[in-house]
Amino acid sequence: MVRMSDLPRRPDTGHPPDPIVELELKYGHEGKVKSESYQNTCNPHMYESFRFEVPVNDLGNQTLCFRVIDLMKTGIPEWGDEERDRVSDERVAIPRPPVSFAADELGQEGQMLLVSLAYWKPSEKLTVVVMKGKNLKFIDNSRKPDPFVKLYIMMGAKRLKKKRTLNKKRDANPVWNEAFSFNIPHRLLHRVSVMLLAKHHSERGRERLLGKLVIGATSSDETVDHWNAMCTTGKSVARWHHLIEEK
Fold it and tell me: What transmembrane ranges does the database entry give (predicted)?
């Protein structure tokens, strides 16, 4: 779902609604899925993706139903001591708005990660796409890693949310193209950062840190430029970053 337009105002007050969408696939599929809620708008920009597992032979018998509901609430809830519960997240498809790439790849040496950032102000949604890695270091100098990326939404030193990509097998140049979306109020965007940890997953289930990356308004020169470009362009901005190896 990309966006809705010209939703009716509330007849009693004339205020815009707080819309949410319920989706249901009829015939043989139980349960419903819901979009995130959007406050005080008749024209929400959504950029949300949902997946239904349907055998190809059953497609002709299916009906996808959309139900738009007004939650009858006003305003955005204040964030107090329960920031962790106020941030919602979901794994989504790669965003459809245009992606702006940096002109260079910061050189070819060292461990690198290609990350795309987007912030949709109307829906207050931050989308982080872990696209691919490059030159990830070998394990014990002999074998390629089994890499994955852990992603944290940070506010200062506090971890609000955690997600991770899938594991890749013996790949020093993995391609993930996995996207994660989080609701972040615009007034708190300058206090939030994204921390990404590239790790090796051993056969014994242990994790070994390969490198670290932090992107936010108060991060290093290289990454803060990426963050500022995301905030000002209104597009998905993808850039390469060097991973920091912690000793």
Answer: none
